[in-house]
Amino acid sequence: MANLVLAETAGDAIADATLATVTAAAQLGGDVHVLVAGSAAAADAAAKIVGVSKVLHAVDAAYANSLAENVAPLIAGLMDGYDAVLAPATTTGKNVLPRVAAMLDVMQLSDIIAVDGPKAFKRPIYAGNAIATVESSDPKLVITVRTTAFEKAAAEGGSARVEAVAGAGDAGISQFVKLDAVKSDRPELTSAGIIVSGGRALKDGPTFEQYITPLADKLGAAIGASRAAVDAGYVPNDYQVGQTGKIVAPELYVAVGISGAIQHLAGMKDSKVIVAINKDPDAPIFQVADIGLVADLFTAVPELTEKV
Amino acid sequence: MKILVPVKRVIDYNVKPRVKADGSGVDLANVKMSMNPFCEIAVEEAIRLKEAGKAEEIIAVSVGPAKAQETLRTALAMGADRAILVETEDAVEPLAVAKILKAIADEEQPGLVMLGKQAIDDDSNQTGQMLAALMGRPQGTFASEVAIEGDSVSVTREVDGGLETVKLTLPAIVTTDLRLNEPRYASLPNIMKAKKKELAVKTPADYGVDTTPRITTIHVAEPPVRKAGEIVADVDALVAKLKALGVT
Fold this sequence. Notes:
heterodimer; A: alpha/beta; seven-stranded parallel beta sheet; five-stranded parallel beta sheet; B: alpha/beta; nine-stranded mixed beta sheet; two-stranded antiparallel sheet
């Protein structure tokens, strides 16, 4: 038996999310193959992941922007040879895989955090307020993986062969227009070791920048935000940590002026060490924080930036 | 153009869910239920498109228990024109919901199906994409902006790396993200008027859909509890703690 992983690429590199997904695929048992719908360099990078025995490289430009209308039929067409297809629960995986599942007439298992048996998995429901153990009765499995819950497979050391695959190409019903990417030299939020996150208490965009950025710079951290801060326009959408934003689990998570709504906690409570700075001693964030500081962030954060 | 808006009745987003003692699920008895927040955003967007002259009729649909009529009445009070309840007391998985919606779309021929990107109970994030696959139509998921342009729709999507824009040929499926709009509250006169709007009641069997679950829930547990740590007196103490933990 064999399982297929839909790779998430970052230009010519393989995203960390893919490495964690390879680990989840290996836990199902059997060979792990990786599908790369991207550059030849990215396919070569995937071939080096430890535990991967074959890389399928879809060359057609129709797959370049991961349009679900084009990629889903490609994957569905490959599934005769596989027992399961897995993708990281990124916006790409979440967009493409349910379309594959419906084409195969199977139910998708979303956002798994553990493999409990050949067809049994754990997954969070109700924003992580409950963990369900579920078992599929479908002949094939379609799975998205919460990548913070699995160790990353080693990116170097493997030597899989690379095979070209072709599909129907462009379905002709959708077009990629543009990506307004947020350019940043910071670590990527979902794979950062340290994250400094700001909430509504930061007041506005310039204030957020003035207080959060220097601390993040000092710590070499990625910057995150609560939904309230994103909705208020302090920072762009891709900063959002939470149930419907990004799920993160860094070594250190510093929550500044974040009250700690359950939707936010759902996105960060698996962080190793949580620090909360908030002037309200009753803020729910203190119930999950390892270290809490009840203080006005406008004095505490500059002082912390200086002393840390 | 018609817009089909599927909506789901879920636990209110302000309520903290409690796992049942026997591990069979989450306790929903005597818990406040509301329209899924993402579905509210979908209803609002459909109404705005109608107000802008881009659509003629909005049909709200729900697959769920008899009480989901309340959710549909809320959609009608906000501004949907009529509603269909596909009534079942069983839990229905996204794939079966998508099959029912496909059958309804075949009958109604909507130009757009607008639905929430995920329900806050099972957090599946599947139904829209599955419906798009079954209909063989394009999907604009996680939308933060929707613009109808002739026979296509331009959708700005909230993706991990920023904002992506795609152009989809109609009919299309759009799933809504949080920042697409702010849903309106229904006014009292509109709530009264909604009571007189058409609400058809059907069953999954009327659409020939088998709703037998494919996934069995074996057990539901509380997540591991994270213990509150310690409150430090000042920044110096915080810095000392961080150094002791070796994380900075």
